[in-house]
Amino acid sequence: MDYETPQFYRVMQYAAQADRDVVDMVSGSPDWDPPATLRDGLRAYADAPADDYQYPPSVGLRPLREEIARRRGVPVEQIIITNGAGEANHLAMAGGFEAFGGTEILLADPVYPYYAGRANFLGAATRYVAAETDGQLDPTALRKAASEETSVIVVNSPNNPTGAVYPESAIREFVAIAEDCGALLVSDEVYDHFDYSGEFASALDVDSEQRIVTDAFSKTMAVTGLRVGYAIITDDDLRDRARTRHMLTTVTGSRPAQYAVAHALEATPPSYYSGVRERVRGRIDRLTDALDSIGAEYTDPDGGFYVMARFPEFGGGFDDVYELIDAAGVAGMPGAAFGESFEDWIRFSVCTDRVETAAARLEAYFE
Amino acid sequence: MDYETPQFYRVMQYAAQADRDVVDMVSGSPDWDPPATLRDGLRAYADAPADDYQYPPSVGLRPLREEIARRRGVPVEQIIITNGAGEANHLAMAGGFEAFGGTEILLADPVYPYYAGRANFLGAATRYVAAETDGQLDPTALRKAASEETSVIVVNSPNNPTGAVYPESAIREFVAIAEDCGALLVSDEVYDHFDYSGEFASALDVDSEQRIVTDAFSKTMAVTGLRVGYAIITDDDLRDRARTRHMLTTVTGSRPAQYAVAHALEATPPSYYSGVRERVRGRIDRLTDALDSIGAEYTDPDGGFYVMARFPEFGGGFDDVYELIDAAGVAGMPGAAFGESFEDWIRFSVCTDRVETAAARLEAYFE
């Protein structure tokens, strides 16, 4: 995989060069505003004394860690603030791959491509477990794929790209599988504020030293560019590894971003989160209504920003996506970019205020 | 080395628990203000549209890279914005260790402890070249230590902890040694704005694909907590490695920090830099005057924030430093924390507005 020009750039470039107007449903970056309180936090930081411009602790600003600890119900010592969920996942996967025996990292297919990229980067082999057609990850299938060669299992709920929210029973079983085969479960919960089912279950609710929860404010507060995430690590050895790797590779995260997020966590009213969630959900509903009327198959999202769809007599490769750009004026991501099991599908992100236009265009094209 | 509680914390904790007032000359974090323009940049970012809160390019914001390219006289493509000089050094050392044959990383002694920590973290053996008593690194000694086992050589000018500024002839020879033994020269120039000798030479001035220059705005703009640094990498393969590692470990740096630094680079008058430099130099002069009157040996700094001093009939271990805290009310860093060749010395940082008090206390104690 070529990480410098990730596959979604290919699609976005094609769309940018198209002869017509195209609705961008490729990117997963929120197109809505961060909380006003976050901007207030940045303004307050701009006036802060000189001392506040120097290194924060390597593990992150204490008030931010304390607020996260309170909300997630864990001791503050277990929290490391990272450069987004990306670094949190890297620290967790790298530490788990070192600490547990085994040559393999187990991933779901379709997969968020960076998990695969990180596994390759670590020199780990990857083994994939195909998701069900509704996007769920069957614990029985995961258990069948796990072995003593498994060092790390990465799961993501609400899921990118399928929108599945794994039930508590599945999360519990994923942790049990990690324990049974001597591996680490990494549970990436970065879309946790976008659960439409009320069924979201955190791996934190399963008591185990063999699970690490990663998360970030990138989606929750619409600030993918601030790079504020965290890992919650219960096991002392895994936590030491993550702290050392963090200190020697990035030293510490950026302070104005941490400061602003800490302020926003305290001051943002619940209506911000519910308002954004309802808006995203409304967009998903509009898109799935169109898919219904077209007669397309789709993973009905319980959470997240994405819908995977399979159109009648239509594929999910780059050529199909290009055709949809040219003929319908809608750009999605080829399912083939996420693995093999959904290669006839196309992922649509609803991070655009033009979902209505896109839905109407798809209806016109496929009907 | 225990990176979670770095050695300087031990000294700072001891100082904090002392029964008396202690001048902190341990930390290298500037105690002065960042440019007002940098605060203006943060305020402007606080008002920026929602789009500006999303992922910047992985290699960094284009205007920031362009301004650095202009100032350093290199093509913009060679620049990767990193999470401080720390990440830049990590990317350079890790990539060099992978790309060049050899098991060793060559470092100066006394050494900035993070270089040694990063080498250990990469699984590299370390070989040290003792600096001269004036803090200079003799190219002949470096050449003698280099071999086909050398994969990376790290130099730092102006130097932490000695204050030495390496002359152009030495920098040129360091690059030649790297080329001759099939290794990478990493030149960390993070103190480049604090050259009092007018003799500072950048490794950029030596045309070679076997050198990487690392730098940051942490010291230049007194913002160690913003985490904005960069690497300049001429060789295509080394640059690809750094970009991939950067993308898969941290994804990208924090955007408000990059935005604010870009604004400050454009808008800060030269008087800010010269004013800060003269202030630091004045503090160094006051300290070295005291050392002269005491009859202490010291590395007369040509640059940077630090003075290494050896007092008559006094050591440079933790016990000596603790004695100086209790008896004189001045806290420095044990020379032993930086290696073997200066283990009878103590490093004093002038990142405090109480250098006058410290100088007077040292004079009173040693005279």
From TrEMBL, chains A, B:
InterPro entries: Aminotransferase_I/II_large, AspAT/PAT-like, PyrdxlP-dep_Trfase, PyrdxlP-dep_Trfase_major. Keywords: Aminotransferase, Pyridoxal phosphate, Transferase. Its cofactor is pyridoxal 5'-phosphate. GO terms for molecular function: pyridoxal phosphate binding; transaminase activity. GO terms for biological process: amino acid metabolic process. Residues 21-353 form the Aminotransferase class I/classII large domain. Coiled coil: none annotated. It comes from the Archaea. Belongs to the class-I pyridoxal-phosphate-dependent aminotransferase family. Homodimer. This is Pyridoxal phosphate-dependent aminotransferase.
